[in-house]
Amino acid sequence: MTRPATAAATTPVQGLPLALDDVTYRYGRGQAGVGPLNLQVQPGEFLCVVGPSGSGKSTLLSLLAGFLRPQRGEIRLGETPVRGPDPRLTLVQQEAALFPWRTVAGNVAFGLERQRIPRAERAARANETLRLVGLEGYGPRRVHELSGGQRQRVSLARALAVQPRLLLLDEPFSALDDRTRTVLSDELLGIWWAQKVTVVFVTHNLDEALALGQRVVALRGGEVVLDDRARDLDVAKLRGTLEG
Ligand SMILES: Nc1ncnc2c1ncn2[C@@H]1O[C@H](COP(=O)(O)OP(=O)(O)OP(=O)(O)O)[C@@H](O)[C@H]1O
């Protein structure tokens, strides 16, 4: 993973440590689901989670985001458990689920309204965050005027505007063309580097995980089968583990 040469200018946000202790989730009475999972993510670490279809990536993210509650074990962000939707974390999904009736700035400011941030500060933070994702001046535009890549930038800006301590990303660039994906990946690294936010990035694409993550965790059958620093990874072994 290469460090971006210039870090984007913004208020640094210190990421929180994330801990999963013996976390298990099963759908219904079946065996499908994840766990037991034990993971420690350092404050400000960029962790990529890879795995084939059905390996439990989305389930893990839903647990981290507080949409699902573990049936066993505990997830902690900093000192406190995640027990439901949590203002300290935000999630960027594969498809940018933006509000079509709001402007770009209105979408970015959405989370700030919920935090009851005053209007002038909301506008300033929305503009600052749009600049961070390369969309300076796009605030008054409507969402339908934007390309797929620009919409995903807005989605990222909306997640960043609330200054999360943990940023969750679920295959955020997979619907984009290769060039846009590379550009946005580089920009995401710049933002992460500047903000020091803890990142969990889920992808089925091993090359993307290796390009982005400081550390890569591989899931299979709902369990961690490999956990290593990206630079130390035996890529052939990992491919074999995921495909075998
Ligand atoms: N709502 C559900 N009800 C029952 N089983 C489910 C449900 N959602 C997921 N599963 C099962 O749980 C396991 C993990 O699924 P999950 O969606 O987390 O995998 P994934 O790695 O995200 O897959 P993909 O890459 O295809 O999105 C799979 O066996 C899946 O069939």
Automatic annotation (TrEMBL):
Domain of life: Bacteria
Domain ABC transporter span(s) in chain numbering: 18-244
Keywords linked to the UniProt accession: ATP-binding, Nucleotide-binding, Transport
GO MF annotation: an example: ATP hydrolysis activity
SUPFAM superfamilies given in the database record: P-loop containing nucleoside triphosphate hydrolases
CDD domains in alphabetical order: ABC_NrtD_SsuB_transporters
Protein name: NitT/TauT family transport system ATP-binding protein
